[in-house]
């Protein structure tokens, strides 16, 4: 499994900046074998930095990262179990697909030319064209095919579905899941499309400004948040009243006499606590992963300055 313990990653300040940039701030996370793990986060949250640390592109200077008990940086054996697809494909511009196959077969002893040819055939990519002539989506398809053909235990895809049309997204996701299940491999995927993470992954985490906000099985994450609609007999409930019942309220809004509360906590527990106020209306509505993502970031003021300027 992958163990990330108390990792902090700082980049030196650029000219004109007052302070160093903290990309990750004391992040700890465990990624068990055989799962598909989604990395979610606001822009610049630290997702790509964490992936580069996991794949050994950057050294870990504070904290530790181990994969199956080994550190990755400057470790050829550990890197041989890992394939990282970053969000850039310019490095492959001069390659044909045959070049791509030869390149990775030289680095990964488990590389399967048979799997590569099968996947490229499914995708219908032109074998003799240079990748500089490919569209963004075609380049992404080719590199994902190479990643799956290397047959590593761990695969990381940074914005894996960027540039793909909806039909091709479905094909690529099916290919990935089929290959991963065949080998009980572990996939880590980042995406700004929260619905996609919800559909593909069984676990997820959320980063914001380098801080880990949550990390768990997706069903457990969803069970830890809910939307409450409540109306009292003679007044409108306030955020403070709800908090006084031991409820963590992230957001409170009202429409007439009905209040809507976005809360952290199991819906049954929350309903039980609010029932003490003897409401005339009380119901809980589950939240989607996308709604949880939005409410978590809004609670931390993400985008508030921009909205203020627009007004």
Summarize the structure.
This protein has 311 residues and is of the alpha/beta class.
Question: How would you describe what is shown here?
Answer:
The chain has 311 residues and is an alpha/beta fold. It folds into 2 domains: 2-220, Rossmann fold (3-Layer(aba) Sandwich); 224-310, Alpha-Beta Plaits (2-Layer Sandwich). The protein has helices at 47-54, 76-79, 97-105, 113-123, 136-149, 166-183, 194-200, 218-223, 239-244, 267-274, 289-299, 304-310; strands at residues 2-11, 21-31, 36-41, 64-67, 82-85, 154-158, 186-190, 203-208, 211-217, 225-231, 248-255, 258-264, 281-285. The protein has a 6-stranded mixed sheet with strand order 5-6-7-3-8-9, sandwiched between helices. The chain has a 4-stranded antiparallel sheet with strand order 11-12-10-13, with helices on both faces. A hairpin with a 2-residue loop joins β8 and β9. α4 (113-123) runs antiparallel to α5 (136-149). The radius of gyration is 23 Å and the shape is elongated.
Descriptive labels:
311 residues; alpha/beta; Rossmann fold; Alpha-Beta Plaits; 2 domains; 4-stranded antiparallel β-sheet; 13 strands; 35% helix
Topology, element by element:
Layout: E1 2-11, E2 21-31, E3 36-41, H1 47-54, E4 64-67, H2 76-79, E5 82-85, H3 97-105, H4 113-123, H5 136-149, E6 154-158, H6 166-183, E7 186-190, H7 194-200, E8 203-208, E9 211-217, H8 218-223, E10 225-231, H9 239-244, E11 248-255, E12 258-264, H10 267-274, E13 281-285, H11 289-299, H12 304-310
Parallel strand pairs: 3-7, 3-8, 5-6, 6-7
Antiparallel strand pairs: 1-2, 1-4, 8-9, 10-12, 10-13, 11-12
Helix pairs in contact: 4-5
């Amino acid at each position: 499994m992958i163990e990330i313990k108390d990792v902090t990653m700082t980049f030196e300040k650029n000219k004109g900046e007052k302070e160093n940039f903290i990309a990750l701030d004391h992040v700890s996370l465990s990624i068990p074998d055989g799962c598909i793990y989604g990395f979610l986060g606001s822009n610049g949250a630290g997702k790509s930095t964490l992936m580069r640390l996991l794949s050994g592109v950057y050294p870990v200077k504070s904290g530790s990262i181990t994969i199956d008990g080994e550190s990755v940086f400057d470790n050829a054996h550990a890197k041989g179990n890992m394939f990282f697809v970053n969000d850039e494909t310019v490095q492959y511009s001069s390659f044909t697909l045959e070049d791509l196959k030869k390149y990775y077969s030289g680095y990964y002893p488990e590389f399967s030319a048979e799997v590569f040819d099968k996947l490229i055939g499914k995708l219908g990519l032109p074998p003799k064209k240079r990748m500089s002539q490919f569209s963004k989506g075609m380049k992404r398809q080719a590199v994902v095919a190479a990643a799956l053909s290397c047959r590593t235990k761990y695969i990381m895809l940074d914005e894996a579905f960027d540039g793909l049309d909806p039909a091709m997204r479905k094909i690529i996701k099916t290919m990935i899941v089929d290959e991963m299940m065949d080998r009980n491999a572990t996939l880590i995927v980042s995406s700004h499309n929260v619905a996609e993470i919800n559909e593909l992954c069984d676990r997820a985490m959320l980063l914001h400004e380098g801080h880990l906000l949550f990390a768990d099985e997706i069903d457990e994450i969803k069970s830890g948040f809910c939307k409450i609609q409540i109306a009292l007999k003679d007044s409108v409930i306030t955020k403070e009243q709800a908090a006084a019942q031991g409820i963590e309220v992230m957001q409170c809004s009202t429409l007439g006499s009905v209040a809507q509360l976005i809360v952290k906590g199991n819906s049954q527990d929350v309903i039980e606590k609010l029932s003490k106020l003897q409401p005339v209306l009380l119901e809980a509505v589950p939240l989607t992963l996308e709604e949880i993502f939005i409410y978590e970031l809004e609670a931390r003021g993400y985008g508030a300055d921009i909205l203020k300027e627009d007004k």
